[in-house]
Design goal:
Blueprint (H helix, E strand, L loop, with lengths): L2 H20 L3 H13 L1 H11 L2 H32 L3 H16 L9 H9 L3 H6 L1 H31 L1 H12 L3 H38 L5 H11 L8 H13 L3 H36 L7 H15 L3 H25 L1
Helix pairs in contact: 2-8, 2-10, 3-4, 4-8, 4-11, 5-6, 5-12, 10-11, 10-13, 10-15, 12-13, 14-15
């Protein structure tokens, strides 16, 4: 047997066992790598200021943890605690108020009575109250799993930032693509990922702050519910309604019709229409110009469906994986197109 053949066999066997060994962490490592690509310019800035790649990577990792993972952990922990202290009488009161509203709606909602009746027909809030403890246990176990995955992502993210140049050079040597093709793929992927990640983070913080300020004046925990709204807003189209609708229903069940009307109209007009429709594109444009400084023209509709598909397929982290997979595929298409015209 030739030495080359033996080397190939050994390499194939070691690759298989490496896959078996790290299979549970592959998705976590991929997410960490994509986050590192998205925030590479921040790491470069910190490195140039501190004159140390290690310190620059450490500061970037700390910033990511504070802005992204700590708020979500705070939300999950508080949500679990609140479920454990859920009052069944409050849910029964909400259920009674909702059914009264549907049975005798105001004249301006009369047209929606059949649709609301069908929607509420199978909803049993009393069952939710009896199962609240099991729901709290499920969310608690999810929170523990999220904490574990977050710590792993942060660790892998730091090493991806610190050793990013070495990894990229190694991949380039193995793949052996022409330098122009490497630059095209890297440029397209990093530009799209950076714009998507920064815009998601900025708009979630902005819309969460708007909602948090409003509910804090109503006596609620503005920080907690602002964080909840920010993450809910990541779900396209219906994300914001998942937050303001329960607030409106709860306030209505307490007899606070004015507060229910205010939170509904404020969320629809101020956040969904003004902030999401008019201010969000400006934020994305400013991020692309000031921070990314990229000439890549993003099709927002493609990114929108990429996020929806990612969330549906991969869950929460699909908002990162969906645009990454889509942008990489489009970059390959552009490369194939360039090669075809060259021939």
């Amino acid at each position: 047997m030739k030495s080359q053949h033996l080397l190939i066999i050994l390499f194939g066997a070691s690759l298989y066992w490496m896959y078996r060994l790290y299979e549970p962490f592959l998705l976590t490592m991929l997410i960490a790598a994509l986050l590192a690509i998205s925030t590479a310019n921040i790491q470069c800035h910190f490195t140039s200021v501190t004159k140390s790649r290690f310190v620059g990577s450490l500061l970037t990792t700390f910033l990511l943890a504070v802005l992204f993972f700590v708020p979500l952990g705070y939300f999950l922990a508080n949500f679990t605690i609140r479920l454990n202290h859920l009052d069944p009488e409050t849910l029964s009161k909400i259920d009674h108020s909702l059914r009264n509203l549907i049975a005798n709606p105001p004249h301006y909602l009369a047209f929606a009575k059949p649709y609301l009746a069908d929607l509420l027909k199978d909803l049993q809030l009393g069952d939710f109250a009896t199962k609240a403890l099991s729901y709290a246990g499920t969310i608690g176990s999810y929170s523990a799993g999220y904490l574990k995955n977050s710590l792993l992502i942060i660790v892998f993210y730091f090493f991806a930032q610190y050793n990013g140049d070495v990894i990229i050079r190694f991949i380039k040597k193995v793949v052996k693509l022409p330098e122009d093709d490497n630059k095209l793929l890297t440029y397209e992927l990093s530009s799209v990922m950076s714009t998507v990640f920064y815009s998601i983070l900025a708009t979630a913080m902005f819309e969460g702050a708007l909602f948090g300020v409003a509910v804090s004046f109503m006596g609620y925990n503005g920080l907690l519910f602002g964080i909840m709204y920010g993450f809910a807003s990541l779900i396209p189209v219906v994300g914001g309604a998942l937050m303001w609708l329960p607030f409106a229903v709860y306030e209505y069940s307490l007899g606070n019709v004015g507060a229910a009307f205010f939170i509904a109209m404020y969320s629809i007009i101020m956040i969904s229409i003004i902030a999401d429709t008019f201010i969000k594109p400006v934020i994305i444009k400013e991020i692309n110009i000031r921070f990314i400084k990229s000439s890549v023209k993003l099709n927002e509709l493609v990114i929108f469906f990429a996020i929806i598909a990612g969330l549906a397929t991969f869950g929460f982290w699909g908002m990162i994986l969906g645009p990454a997979i889509t942008s990489f595929f489009l970059a390959l298409l552009k490369l194939v197109e360039a090669k075809s015209f060259a021939e």
